[in-house]
Write a structure and sequence with these properties.
49% strand, 6-stranded mixed beta sheet, mainly beta, single chain, globular
Length: 491
């Protein structure tokens, strides 16, 4: 299936179905020689409704196959109003999906856990038909999003929660057989707390908890998405620490992604002890625009994620993505003197770039997306604040697109090394030295080619080295039967 975009904002190298709505990645698991990536999916339109599980699989993270819809709501059943988020485990020849069963008449915020099982590599699933864990603990005002992992000879499960006393929490269960589950209490819980010194906080409740276990000499990470009932500001947060019995002891919360457009990330334990993460990159434009275009949302690039011995959470694009590099379109290095911008070369609307900038108080790069230069995306160093700024305030001349600038910590007084992947309407900016990442969506109106500039508004010299490659489209097989509308349904 060609992944060439039908409009200028549709990605070519980020996973999403051919049309309609996608949100949270779900059920990320390596099973039967394949990476399986499920996701929340509305087969009937480009809005958040009618939640099913869509399904992709790949042997290598480069070539993908879209499989039939994995999970569909059962009319009159426990999941009648949606198969919401969860994860999956590989157990011998079984692929078992654990997910949140939604019924609006039960409670909008309480989605107890149920399962579905596949014996054919994920092509078809048999739903359980009843709840696996029918009741939530007393005092939970929100309950959803199971995450199951193998722990020695047994299994453990986290469920995201909000508590009546105002704390967000991850609840812990254990099982010997994936069938009978025992509640062990709060794995971690805390009141709203600022994240990374920002105005964002850990939320009233914790959605989509994920667990990256500690290794020898390295702490672990509890990752969750901060939820607020009033649909307030959201962020993706990690607590870095270690298990102590049935609880998790951790320090202050840190950002998993510093951008506005990454939420509900999910982990996949890959062969060789490597961990991968995908997130959901929602839209940053008016809903009516997305609906008119017939699609909304995508998944981020797969990222390798780890925790250093000093407790730093690090991410980088999965190594396999170097295989998506095509023509080497830009190679520029030198020293800029004075405030005049330096033209680096032209790029298409999907490219993979590395950059090294020598220390400077406001050194940066600009991606110009219209010939007159009035539309641009800026990536610049704020040395005084010790931060890297990604500014989309002028990145679209269409007023229906969101603006704003976003920051992540960046060591000053040393060269800044970046990896930036742009795919039509998404930019993922990685700080190589620190492993931090910032994701945002933007909607350029210029048809290209686009131009790169090195910029330094002061008289100080700016050393730079920039390389860019064409970002090749993913190879995706033609959709298998059943990927679109479930049988008996209509748009």
């Amino acid at each position: 299936m060609s992944t060439a975009p039908c409009d200028p904002y549709r990605p070519v190298a980020h996973l999403r179905p051919p049309r309609n709505w996608i949100n949270d990645p779900n059920g990320l698991v390596f099973h039967d020689g394949h990476y399986h990536v499920f996701h929340q999916y509305n087969p009937y339109g480009a809005t958040h409704a009618n939640m099913h599980w869509g399904h992709f699989r790949s042997p290598d993270l480069l070539s993908w196959e879209q499989l039939p819809i994995a999970l569909s709501p059962t009319s009159g059943g426990e999941d009648a109003d949606g198969c919401f988020s969860g994860n999956a485990v590989s157990d011998g020849d079984r692929l078992i999906a654990f997910y949140s069963a939604n019924r609006w008449d039960r409670s909008p915020q309480h989605q107890p856990v149920t399962t579905a099982t596949s014996l054919d590599g994920g092509r078809t699933f048999a739903p359980r038909g009843e709840l696996l864990i029918p009741e939530w603990p007393e005092g939970c005002t929100m309950y959803r999003d199971p995450y199951v992992w193998q722990d020695g000879d047994g299994w453990r499960m986290l469920v995201g929660a909000a508590l009546a006393d105002g704390r967000g929490a991850a609840l812990l269960y254990e099982s010997a057989d994936l069938e009978a589950w025992t509640y062990l209490g709060l794995f971690d819980a805390r009141e709203q707390e600022p994240v990374g010194g920002s105005d964002l906080h850990t939320g009233e409740g914790w959605e989509c908890p994920q667990y990256l276990p500690a290794k020898s000499g390295q702490p672990g990470a509890l990752i969750f998405s901060a939820w607020n009932l009033a649909d307030g500001p959201r962020c993706v947060t990690a607590l870095i620490g270690e298990e102590r019995g049935n609880t998790f002891e951790a320090g202050s919360p840190v950002f998993v992604d510093h951008g506005p457009d990454c939420y509900a990330p999910a982990l996949l334990r890959a062969p060789g002890g490597r961990w991968l993460l995908w997130g959901w990159a929602g839209e940053a434009r008016e809903e009516s625009w997305a609906v008119a275009d017939g699609w909304a949302g995508m998944l981020t690039l797969p990222r390798e994620i780890s925790v250093d011995g000093d407790g730093t959470l690090r991410q980088q694009p999965a190594a396999e993505l170097l295989g998506r590099r095509g023509e080497h379109t830009v190679h520029a290095e030198g020293v800029a003197h004075g405030p005049e911008p330096v033209e680096l070369g032209s790029v298409g609307s999907a490219f993979d770039m590395t950059a090294r900038l020598e220390p400077g108080p406001a050194a940066g790069l600009r991606l110009l997306t219209t010939p007159d230069g009035h539309e641009y995306l800026d990536i610049r160093l704020d040395a005084a604040a010790g931060e890297l700024v990604v500014d989309r305030e002028h990145a679209s001349l269409d007023k229906r697109a969101q603006g704003g600038s976003y920051r992540m910590p960046c060591p000053s007084g040393q060269p800044v090394e970046l990896r930036v992947v742009v795919d039509h309407s998404i930019a993922e900016v990685f700080l190589t030295a620190t492993g931090q990442v910032l994701t945002l969506r933007f909607y350029p109106t210029g048809g290209g080619p686009w131009r790169l500039q090195a910029r330094n508004p002061t008289d100080a010299p700016l050393g730079f080295a920039v390389d860019a490659w064409e970002l090749l489209p993913l190879t995706i097989k033609e959709p298998s039967t059943g990927t679109e509308l479930p049988q008996g349904q209509s748009t």
